[in-house]
Amino acid sequence: MGLGMWALGFGISAPVLAQSPYVAGAISADVSRVSHADSSLYSSPANGGEVLSGALRVGTSVGSNWGVELEFVRAGRTSEQRPLITPLAVTGGITTNIEQLLPAGVLTGYTVSSIPFNYRSDVRRRHESVDAVAWARQSIGGSVDLVYLGGLAFSRDRSDITQSITPIRGTSTPITLPPVIILPPTTYRNTLVEYATRPLVGMEARIGLTSRLRLVPGIRVQGLGDGWLLRPYVGLGWFF
For the residues of 159-217, what is the DSSP string, one character each? Predict the structure, then answer.
């Protein structure tokens, strides 16, 4: 019985000892593209862009040519400003969109310098994800391996939205209009956090620099809610 237990324990521990764990760090450029619409009346935010990001990874080989890896990625912030209502300057008449809002003839012959307020939206976004992947390795030389990987990205996207309403005053000839209440400058702040799970695939090379240090260039593609994210990177890995 004791011999059988010893043999079972040896059989379980042998593959564990054969594993090769590693840690790595990488610098990358996140290139994201999402669906959006443009028209002459309204343009929706594109929400895509290019930003630098950093990644930390831990992994291990499980078999002779395959293994698993866990990666944490944090991207830099992207910023977007979109004025939705801006001043209008008109001489000797008015623009069509204001004519539709007021009774006919109210502004005829007058000069309108501006709408009573500006509205501006400032959106700052940050992408983070924890990626769980499995990889397969193909040796193409004594110190170079090609690695193919696939898995899931558990992402967290945070959007900080600042909306500012600023009253403005025109400088043109006064006109007769219904009384308007002028509000003080107002700022509203909102935070939107979105969690998602998306597929991820990629390919990288592991180039031996020393017996344990390797250069790791590669590229990964991750799905987004209504688009995709491309992440080319270069990093260094230490293999124990």
Answer: EEEEEEEEE----S----------PPPEEEEEEEEEEEEEEEEEEEEEEESSSSEEEEE
What CATH number does the domain containing 26 carry? 2.40.160.20
Sequence-separated (6 or more) residues with CB below 8 Å from residue 120: 81, 82, 83, 84, 163, 164, 166
Q: What is the pLDDT of residues 19-74, one digit of tens each?
A: 589 999 999 999 988 776 666 655 555 566 788 999 999 999 998 899 999 999 99
The residues, any chain, with a CB within 8 Å of residue 90's CB and separated by 6 or more, are: 111, 112, 113
Residue 1 lies in a domain: no
Q: For residue 139, what are the domain limits?
A: 18-37+45-239
The pTM (predicted TM-score) of the whole model is 0.66
Are 199 and 155 spatial neighbours (Cβ–Cβ below 8 Å)? no
Q: How many domains does the chain have?
A: 1
The span from the CA of 153 to the CA of 120, in Å, is 33
